[in-house]
Amino acid sequence: MENGLGTENTPACGCGGTQPNGKPLHSPFLRKGGWLLLALPAWFLVYYWLLPATEWLTSSVFGLDLGSRLGSAVAFFLYDAPKVLLLLSLVVLGVTFIQTFVSPERTRDILARRAGAWGNLLASLLGIITPFCSCSAVPLFIGFVRVGVPLGATFSFLVSAPMVNEVALFMLLGLFGWKIAGLYAATGVGIAFLSGWVLGKLRMEKHLEAWVMEIPFTASTVDNHGMALPERLEVAVQGVRDILGKVWPYILAGIAVGAFIHGYVPESLMARFMGRSAWWSVPLAVIVGVPLYSNAAGVMPIVQALLGKGAALGTVLAFMMAVIGLSLPETIILRKVLKPTLIAVFLGVVATGILVVGYLFNLIL
Questions:
Q1: Where does residue 65 fall: left (phi above 0), alpha (psi -120 to 50 degrees), or beta otherwise?
Q2: Nearest to 79 by CA among 105, 108, 59
Q3: pTM of the predicted model as reported, rounded to 2 decimal places
């Protein structure tokens, strides 16, 4: 049946349906994920031209001297804002796609079958490839404990997941190279492993809130194994939209702080407060970093600016680990399932590991 808008098989919005010759409006190549072959070259092209475009905008459009404080700060912001967002979108796309194969339930099942130091090591490594945000801490903690995952392994996972997450590693790789990224990954996994191992040895299960073990455990009925490639890519793209939509203000705020440090903070001042010669620089960096809640993408421009001004690598890594791994919001959320004594021990053990890493890298690098 026809009407004034066309046939009944052709939607009025023009999205979907068929062409007059009977062929679908959307190419099967694009529907099956072929758009990635077009999007990825465009991504690399934009990334390649960021630096010359930034210099042209700063000097020719805004009329600023790149060697001046203001010009240096503006150029830093104009370059890092799109660069960080580009890196973040690519990483989130890839990791969210991988996560369609790895569910939280599968992670719990794997950890529940491992005990002792091997369980802590496996939990620390799984935290890298199955990252979850702070808001997931409570349900994950409950689910882990309810299916029999040892408390120590649970803590290893909860330390590793935010601290050694994929965004931190890939952005460190893109901004500073594989050596710093590798050092950060190794030390982060080491902290997660040792923290969980120590907490497991202390046998602090009695310091869980009583209601945690009383609620019934319900397994998820979601099955991702039957998803087709286009569906997995659709989930990945939606993940990019969701995460960028939530974190972009923090990213821009972090880049603005980094730009100010890059343009206006004297190198002598930074060397005095965050240099390797000041013994108190590492604990100060941890104390300052804990309340400054941010994700890895938001703190990375600050890290970049601090290193550029001469701050010691160990001190900067300690600051970054404190911001990501000892965030105040996650601690508040975990208070729902942990008694104050266990929270204090957890924070103390993790903070000690971060301090050791900071001093170690300041000593050897």
A1: beta
A2: 59
A3: 0.65
Q: Return left, alpha or beta for 114; rule: phi > 0 is left, psi -120 to 50 is alpha, else beta.
A: beta
**Residue 78 φ/ψ, nearest 5 degrees:** -65, -30
- State mean pLDDT over 40-66: 89
CA–CA separation, 362 vs 365, rounded Å? 6
- Given a contact cutoff of 8 angstroms between Cβ atoms, the answer to whether 331 and 283 are in contact is no
* Rounded distance between C-alpha atoms, residue 182 and residue 88, angstroms: 19
**Residue 81 half-sphere exposure toward CB, CA atoms < 13 A:** 16
- What's the pLDDT score for residue 56? 93
Please compute the mean of the pLDDT values over residues 310-316 and round it to a whole number.
Answer: 86
Residue 302 has pLDDT above 60, yes or no: yes
Cβ count within 10 A of residue 323: 27
Which DSSP string corresponds to 138-196? HHHHHHHHHTT--HHHHHHHHHHHHHT-HHHHHHHHHHH-HHHHHHHHHHHHHHHHHHH
Residue 304 pLDDT greater than 60, yes or no:
yes
